[in-house]
Amino acid sequence: MEYRTLGRSGLKVPALSFGAGTFGGQGPLFSAWGDTDTVQARRLVEICLEAGLNLFDTADVYSNGASEEILGAALQGLRDRALISTKIGLPMGEGPFDAGASRLRLTRGVEAALKRLKTDRIDLLQLHAFDAATPVEETLSALDDLVRAGKVLYVGASNFAGWQLMKSLAAADRHGWPRYVANQAYYSLVGRDYEWELMPLGLDQGVGAMVWSPLGWGRLTGKIRRGQPLPEVSRLHDSADFGPPVDDERLYRVVETLDEIAAETGKSVPQIAINWLLQRPTVSSVIIGARTEAQLRENLEAVGWNLTIEQVARLDGASAATPAYPYYPYWREGGFKAVNPPPV
After folding, report:
1. For residue 224, what is the DSSP state?
2. Residue 200, helix vs strand vs coil
3. pLDDT at residue 238 greater than cutoff 60
C-alpha cells in the first residue's frame, strides 16, 4: 500500500481507505448500500489491515449511527493499528440541536460518536456539510477545543463549496485554529466538477482530497453497458436519485474506453477507474466500499501499478465536460490559460 501525506499535515494516510457506509443498512439510502453486520465487518477490517489499508471512514448519519457502532466493534483489539475518520453535521433527528456545526452540536456529536466508536479519539473529524447558520468562527473555535482536549486529532470538510472552504481556512489562519487538511469530495470519471475550483484550491491551500464514490455512484462497476438494461442487482434502482446525475452518452463513452483499457491491461473496470483517480493532483486517498470480501479484494488491486500516460489521456478525453462559467475560459481559451494554467 502506498501512503500519502494528507494535505498540509504530518498525517500519512493510505492511498486507498475503506468507507463503512455499507455497515448497518438502516434507512432507504443506506439499506441500498449494504447491511454488513459486526462479524462481516470484522472480516473486512482484517483484510484491509493485511493489505496496509488502515484508514476507515464513516459518519454519524450513516444508518443513524449504526455504521459507527459496527465499525467500533469491528476494531476492538485493533484500534492502535487503525485510523478512524468520521463526519458530523447532517441531521441526526428533528430537534434544533440535531444538525449543523454549532459549538453545542459539535460537542455533543463528538461525545456521541466516541461512544459509538468505542474509542477515546477521532483521528480525522470532517464537517459533513457547511452550516450557513453558524459563524465559521464558532465552528472553528469549537473544533480547536476538541483538538486541544485530544478528542480530535485532525479536522477536515466535506461537500463544501470553494468559497465556504476558503472562508473557513482564512478564519483558521487568522485566529491560529486548526486548518482543514482534508476535503472529502465526490470525484470520478463521470463526475469531474471537483477539478473546476476545489482542486486548484486544494493545491494552493494544501488541502488533500479524500474521494468518495470513485465509481460514480456505482455506474463504473463494469456492469452498465450501452443498449443494455440496468442490472437487476444494481443499487442504482433504489439510490440513483440520491446521487449526482450523469449524462448517459458521457457514461457510455467512459465505460467503452474503460473496457478498451481493461482489455489492454488485464485489470478490471473498477480498478482502472480508481487508478485514474490516484494519479490526479491533490488526491490523498480514494475511499472504496465493499459489501463482500471479493469486492474488497478486487478494489484493493487498484494500487501497485499505474496507467500509462496515453491511457490516462484517453480517459481524460472520454470523460471531459465543459466547466460552467467562470471556469471554462481558464480551461479552453489561450489567454486565460496562459496566466492560469490548469492543474491537470
Report:
1. -
2. helix
3. no
At 182, the amino acid letter reads: A
Q: Which of 220, 213, 183, 215 is nearest to 199 (CA)?
A: 183
Catalytic site residue from 62, 186, 187, 194 = 62
What residue spans define the domains of the chain? 3-339
> Is 90 exceeded by the pLDDT of residue 68?
yes
How large is the average pLDDT for residues 319-331?
87
Q: Tell me how far apart the alpha carbons of residues 45 and 42 are, in angstroms, rounded to a whole number.
A: 5
For the question of residue 62 being annotated catalytic, the response is: yes
The amino acid at residue 201 is L
pLDDT tens by residue, 258-279:
999 999 999 999 999 999 999 9
Are 169 and 140 in contact by the 8 Å Cβ rule? The answer is: no
State how far the alpha carbon of 89 is from the alpha carbons of 11, 131, 213, 286, in Å. 23, 8, 19, 22
Cell matching residue 231: 442490472
Residue 75 DSSP one-character state: T
CATH of 3-339, one of 3.20.20.100, 3.40.50.2300, 3.40.630.10, 3.90.79.10: 3.20.20.100
